[in-house]
Amino acid sequence: MYQSHRDEEYAGEAYYGEGSVYVSPLTRTKRRMIIAVASLVALLVGGVAVDRIAAARAESRTAEAFQDGMGTADRPSVHVRGFPVLNQLAAGSLDHVDLTAHDIPADGSTRPLPVTRLTVGMDGLKTSGSADEAHADSVTATAFLSYADVSSALGVRVSQGDESGRVDATAGLPLVGDVTVSASVSAAGGNRIAFTDVRAEQGELLPPLKSLLDKALDEPVPLQNVPEGLRLRSVTTTEDGIDARFTGRSVTFHPDSSSA
Prior knowledge:
Largest sheet: 6 strands, antiparallel
Shape: elongated
Distance between the termini: 102 Å
Number of helices: 5
Strand order of the largest sheet: 1-2-3-4-11-10
Radius of gyration: 32 Å
């Protein structure tokens, strides 16, 4: 029987009537390809989910170790960088971990100065079998000290100075009035912040006020509540407070690990 060219063109294809779209049934090869792709996608999604669970557990353990070691009221936020995390855990070391903690309480009885916010970047973080300890090969950190906290520690009102790297310190007494001086802020040995090059800015520097300012500014202020092993490298002044930058190698976070 004679078969038209149109019949030959659509032979073996599904036909749904005049004006309908002709749809070729999936070949066995195409079906296998679709199944393989779907299986691969499912495997990847499942792998990502498992890796994210592992990362979350590592983040939780690190936050717990830091909270126990530094005595923060709230658990810090922690983010493990890199993928896959499972491979890093298998190797026993996390490539890079970022941590942010707030309101680290003051440590020590001599002019204790709390840390308003501490941001930490840790390379080569290893966790021990104990959840309350973590060790990092190298660390960079910035401790932000609000002027309100600095003022409470020094006993005078501290604010941003007119020049970069300087602060204003104001002391006042009833019946005497206020006096403001400007001081340069710098890093001193032993993780301390020094106030030097003091200049009178406003008001009369009467003996009682001079005594208050000398007591506040003559001796460097120790930062006793940063992890042991960190060393103060520089300080800068900002609109809201002082940024103290630290670096360290082979730093361990554990209970009572704050520097003296």
